[in-house]
Amino acid sequence: MADEKPKEKPREMKAQVTVPYEMAMGRNWHRFFENLKEERIMGTKCGKCSRVFIPPRSFCPRCFEDNEEWVEIGQEGTIETWCYSNLMFYGQTLKPPFIAVQVHLDGTDVGLQHRIAGFDLSDFEKVRELVKSGGRVRVVWNKEKKGNIFDIDYFELIPE
Amino acid sequence: MRKVAITRFAQSAGVESGDNLMDFTYRISKEVLDKAGLKRNEVGCVMIASSDIFHSGLSCANAVDWDGSGAFMIEGTRAEDSMFALIYAAMRILSGHFDTVLVTSIIKGSENPDNDTLTGFFADPFYMRPLGINETTAAAFQMREYMQRFGVSEEQCAKVAVKNLGNALFNPYAHMKKRVTVDDVLNSETVSDPLKALECAPKSEGVASVLLASGDAAERFTDKPVWIKGFGTSMDHFNLGDRDLLNGQLTVAAERAYRMAGIRQPRKEIDLAEICEPYAFQELLWCEKLGFCPDGEGGKLIDSGETQMYRAFPVNPSGGVLAMNPYVSRGLYRVIEAAMQIRGRAGEHQVDKKVRTALAHGTHGFAGQCHSVVILEG
Q1: In chain B, what residues touch A114 (CB-CB under 8 Å)?
Q2: Which residue ranges in chain B fall short of pLDDT 50?
Q3: pLDDT value for A108
Q4: A9 and B18: CB-CB below 8 Å?
Q5: For position B170, what pLDDT does the model report?
Q6: How far apart are the C-alpha atoms of B9 and B7, rounded to whole Å?
Q7: Is residue B225 part of a domain?
Q8: How far is B9 from chain A (nearest CA, A)?
């Protein structure tokens, strides 16, 4: 009978799944990453509501119309919000501790997530004194460009 | 219009189950049908909620889950969130096509990797995922904005964990239960500042199942139907940077549910709320967005003590999601808890006051991207 109580705890089977995917960037994100290689940040603009998007959206998700116009984005911006992440878990891409940030780059209407670095992150209290929402940051380019989001190595704090 | 009743329900406790996923699903679904005195093949329609691939290591879940939920030769469909499944099920009854729908939600957290390993896959693969953005970092972004814009303190956020983990001591279905102090919460490990470990929900087991019936059919299954008076959902943008993290879509979802239920003054007309707060501060923010207190005053609400289990306006007497986080199922657990309180049969965590109208809330996605609200009445 299926309900019979087993004498031992039923075993568990270890399983790990690794499967490859090929994710299409589409024309817009391809163009965005090609531009990062040249140290330029490009966004798209909605012809109807005039919002400027980064990452560059091919359409405005609110107006639901094609975004035809490309604009170059500033390489400085304002910290909208941030967190000091000390979290290690399977699949984590950055080695903790790191500072995840949402930056409002000059000339855009949306926030971009990246990281803040360029100084000693080991002392959390010191980090809290230095990093403030509303503070200014600037792009630091990776010397080695691969055409991905880490062509922007990190954002550095601009002293007040 | 037709009426929809919650007639019978069952939920698994948060303790790790040695059952495999299919047996686990079967036991809870079967329990509901047995309570209702209904045979499997008499059910009109089966609606399941489960997650493809990441939360069960299986694809596609809607092929695997049917046997355990009793759906052989029955019409069925599936949602990725249990509150949405409940709402779709209610719509099927309202449409007049079905008199009964069995809603079963399935998650076996103990088998899964860490929550953040999985929620990291919610992030897009080009921009957010490489930077380690997951549900916890998104919530930490939101919490910092919340504290800075409204002056809500870390202590006020921590009080939610103190209340909910304490309430859970009285709930046999909860996973995490603990008497903790504000200092215990604030001194727990910083996982993603400003979030502390005790302010982040665990990873739980949880199969929950509900039998819905039309107004005419309900009395065949129960003498205490709980009526679904209103529901509403709304979705925000995917990109965190496109959103105002403090003014998301919960207000819209709530307005839709309140309009349908004829509620004008939520704080006065609702007796109790079960809210989905995977991160402690979110209970305060969601209370504001549900209209229980003005914007920015969620901190004052918890300070007032009114949301404690035995006070005027209990919020999460079950312990909420901080105490029990079976990811996809967590919304349906809120619904079941609210229904138990209305029926006056919640056991040790039954509130003192008479509960006529209760609200259940569900959310999924980063920082409350998607919200759903259900209004229940005895």
Answers
A1: 131
A2: none
A3: 97
A4: yes
A5: 98
A6: 7
A7: no
A8: 22
Residue A70 pLDDT > 90: yes
Q: Answer yes or no: is B65 within a domain.
A: yes
The answer to whether residue A17 neighbours chain B at the CB level (below 8 Å) is yes
Assigned token pair, B213:
């019936």
Structural domain count of chain B = 1
Say if residue A97's pLDDT is above 80: yes
Could you list the residue range(s) of the whole structural domain that residue B97 is in?
4-112+204-218
Domain ranges of chain A: 26-157
B306 within some domain: no
List pLDDT tens digits, range A100-150: 999 999 999 999 999 999 999 998 889 999 999 999 999 999 999 999 999
Enumerate the residues of chain B whose CB falls inside 8 A of the CB of residue A61: 237, 242
Q: Which residues from B are below 8 Å from A90, CB to CB?
A: 113-114, 117
* Beta-strand runs (E) in B113-161: none
CB pairs under 8 A between A and B: 117
Burial class (CB in 10 A: 0-12, 13-18, 19+), B366: buried
User: B197: distance to nearest CA of chain A, Å?
Assistant: 10
| Residue A83: strand, helix, or coil | strand
At residue B117, the 3 state secondary structure works out as helix
The label of the residue with tokens 């259940």 reads: B360
Among the listed residues B208, B241, B240, B267, the one whose alpha carbon sits nearest the alpha carbon of residue B81: B208
pTM here? 0.95
Give the CATH number, domain containing residue B65.
3.40.47.10
B54 in any annotated domain: yes
Q: At CA B79, angle to CA B256 and CA B72, rounded to 5?
A: 130
ipTM entry: 0.92
pLDDT tens, residue by residue, A26-63: 999 999 999 999 999 999 999 999 999 999 999 999 99
Contact A133 B145 (CB under 8 A): yes
Chain B residues interacting with chain A (CB cutoff of 8 angstroms)? 18, 23, 57, 111, 113-114, 116-117, 120, 125-133, 136-137, 140-142, 144-145, 148, 189-195, 237, 239-242, 245
